[in-house]
Specification:
single chain; alpha/beta; two-stranded antiparallel sheet; 17 helices
């Protein structure tokens, strides 16, 4: 922290705790949506039922809280099931060092990666001693990789690769023979707590170089029928069945990051034109993007689809008024302020006043965030910076106006006349339905058009655009 001014110290801590780049890992900081808008809560209820092969796609815009909700879901499920959580985006960004490869990843490569995650979790979280199963997967991957590379030998050491894959895992497991059921297994394993029973397994120091090149195929998709592809699937299923048989608990694979894929054709390759992922012998949850996946989710092989919409901060019957779940953002702020107060107290500091982030400020920023959690948090951080500059004890109306002015400029940048006309058409439609055509899909991708879940999904322009650019009623008036 810079300086010794107690007011500035407070806003510095606010900027650190309201970090828009980080999902919520501490359950004490997790804000819950109302049950009627909580698709993840419904999904958790389904996954806790004793039915096999439950497979789900969770669609949603980037920044609407999917990762935080997935972590919360995984942590809750870990109290009843074995859970392995994999963040593909983080892996391709930090280990593969080629995020564009995620747009080219093949189904068999993704199955192989999940196999590595299972090996890592089994050994270091559940205390399982593997037999020959990892070697079988290693041989299958090496054979397929060699054929993909035209005979160029690739280094495939599954145990080393598994140690280089950062995963989170947890669960309540016990021997099939009726031995004691042990909660919080793996307490001695290196890692960071991520909710009750869920722990991040950090990348091992001896696995600093990722040697399996992913997403480098020659453009020829391998058929699910290829014997080499089937060998990879069978090897991963052997890992799953071994783990489930050992502990008598169902495994849930929770896979985040596919929502970052930009190519709709790649998503169809993974979930529509291939059944490989759906053939894994465990329950699965994958995140996928709303805008680029489009209607193909309804054709996904073996998977049911859910959509996690923005928090409904607008009312369908009157989008200019605050919506039914604004309390979500008040809960989010309140929980983090409790944490900040305790942290400052440990450092000999204090909160500068009784109400540093007033309720009216939360209402306004939440409304103009469009219910996008990350955008709201980003606005709070910008407001904290302005308050730091002014040494203000609380966020004022003037600071809020500056926040909205800055945020609006980014949202309006290079918007076209045709896009404005289409957005005004949505505003004037009493049902606020999604228009036909590719422009509407592109506006969804750009988050200039947003979905809301009140009663049934409906659509409205991002509220920041209604400040200046969009004029409701202008089309009918002309």
């Amino acid at each position: 922290m810079s300086g010794s001014d107690p007011v500035q110290r407070f806003w510095e801590v606010v900027g650190e705790v309201f970090d828009p780049k980080q999902p919520v890992r501490d359950p004490a900081l997790f804000a819950e949506r109302k049950p009627e808008y909580d698709e993840m809560g419904r999904l958790e209820k389904l996954l806790r039922r004793p039915f096999d092969d439950q497979k789900y796609l969770v669609a949603g815009s980037v920044g609407n809280g999917k990762t935080s909700s997935l972590i919360h879901l995984s942590s809750n499920l870990a109290q009843h099931r074995m859970v392995v959580f994999v963040d593909l985006w983080a892996h391709f960004q930090g280990r593969v060092r080629d995020v564009s490869a995620l747009d080219r990843v093949e189904p068999w490569e993704l199955v192989g990666l999940l196999g590595l995650a299972i090996i890592r979790a089994g050994e270091q979280r559940f205390g399982h001693s593997w037999g020959d199963e990892p070697k079988v997967l290693e041989a299958a991957l090496a054979k397929l990789r060699e054929s993909e590379d035209g005979g160029d030998a690739a280094e495939i050491d599954v145990m080393k690769l598994a140690r280089g894959l950062a995963v989170a895992a947890g669960g309540v497991v016990g021997a099939v023979t009726g031995g004691p059921v042990t909660a919080a297994l793996g307490a001695g394993a290196a890692g960071t707590a991520m909710g009750a029973g869920l722990k991040v397994l950090d990348v091992a120091s001896d696995a600093t170089r990722w040697t399996w090149r992913l997403g480098l195929g020659d453009g020829r998709r391998r058929s699910d029928q290829d014997s080499e592809v089937r060998d990879v699937l069978h090897a991963v299923n052997a890992l799953i069945l071994k783990l489930q048989g050992e502990y008598g608990k169902r495994l849930v694979l929770v896979v985040d990051g596919i929502d970052r894929v930009r190519d709709p054709g790649r998503l169809e390759v993974l979930f529509v034109h291939s059944s490989l992922l759906g053939e894994l012998s465990c329950d699965e949850v994958f995140t996928v993007p709303t805008a680029v996946f489009d209607g193909a989710a309804h054709h996904a092989v073996a998977f049911a689809s859910y959509e996690l919409c923005n928090v409904p901060v607008l009312r369908r019957e009157d989008p200019s008024s605050i919506g039914p779940d604004i309390e979500f953002f008040h809960q989010l702020v309140a929980k983090r302020l409790v944490y900040i107060t305790a942290r400052l107290a440990d450092q000999g500091g204090t909160v500068p006043c009784d109400d540093p982030i007033p309720a009216a400020v939360i209402d306004k920023l939440a409304y103009y965030s469009g219910g996008l959690v990350r955008e709201f948090v980003r606005m709070i951080v910008f407001a904290a910076g302005e308050a730091w500059e002014a040494r203000a004890e609380a966020i004022s109306d003037e600071i809020v106006l500056e926040v909205l002015r800055n945020s609006r400029g980014l949202k309006e940048s290079r918007i076209t006349k045709g896009e404005i006309a289409l957005l005004e058409q949505v505003m004037e439609d009493p049902e606020h339905q999604l228009p036909d055509g590719p422009m509407a899909r592109e506006l969804l991708r750009e988050q200039r058009l947003l979905p809301y879940p009140n009663e049934t999904p409906w659509y409205y322009p991002h509220p920041l655009l209604t400040l200046v650019v969009l004029r409701p009623g202008s089309r009918s008036a002309s």
